[in-house]
């Protein structure tokens, strides 16, 4: 039996309130202060993961009690100490590889320092996150009648480790790629790098609205603590693949834009019959996905365990195209697949996607962009 562990953390105050209902009545600043007094702990036991090759794995979700803003606002040494505690819990449980979820993979140097403090392998899961984001966005675009070869693609958070590699992969085939980020110098440096490997026209933007205005396909992977993509930013008929957690796309998009397809990047069907149970009482544990599915970053950790690849696979701020190709091969061999499409934490049927496509066509006929 192969063994892994994965660090999770609350994405918003309501997540804290699920365990401590009093949190709903408290200001977020007080909730954050209380969380700094909490220690990491094992949240759930994961079983039933079985590779297409017959290998089985089990694992544990370990909770780091910090909200997204705290990972960058608190002293780095304190955050590292919390993550290191999570790692030592994983070691005690017998895990041989530790995955970093959500903001735990963003803080500091992307797991490099943490890996040096632990006796087990560490991965951010970003390689498979890139693979599934690109795969999902391209497939979603086809459902909406968009061909990559003639499309304008925008990558929000383009200078991050996930965004830069998504941009490089998509720039090989897209007509145009808009690189959207906060720092002009980093964007220009990325554009210069991509010029040598790209067929696409490249443009850089520091303003989300401008970068998305003409985009047919959007992948958004920023590390923003709150939503940055609003309804008025998105072109009629566009596909938006939101990989970020917390999400980059405002929930207002779901209410106001029935002509755009918003999908969650990195939702993966895990091979076997995965079950998650709370260690406190054995009751089912859910992070909002249907049973048997997981984030791509979790799936990378699971797949590496199934493959016996107990190594620091994806670390730091860079993800290479070769890493993406390699982890895609590993995950495919063990039976991990994209699990259709989800939007704002619910499954989308083929009929719903077709309805969105038709609504976009109607609006375009009357001159809506």
Structure description:
This protein is of the alpha/beta class. The protein has 2 domains: 2-127 and 268-338, no CATH class; 130-266 and 341-365, Rossmann fold, CATH 3.40.50. 37% of the residues lie in helices and 22% in strands. The protein contains 13 helices and 17 strands. The protein has helices at residues 13-19, 28-35, 68-73, 76-93, 112-117, 126-143, 161-171, 184-195, 208-212, 252-256, 296-306, 321-334, 350-365; strands at residues 2-8, 41-50, 56-63, 97-100, 121-123, 152-156, 176-180, 201-205, 217-220, 239-242, 261-264, 267-269, 272-278, 293-295, 337-338, 341-343, 346-348. The chain has a 6-stranded mixed beta sheet with strand order 5-4-1-3-2-13. A hairpin with a 5-residue loop joins strand 2 and strand 3 (56-63). The mean pLDDT is 93.
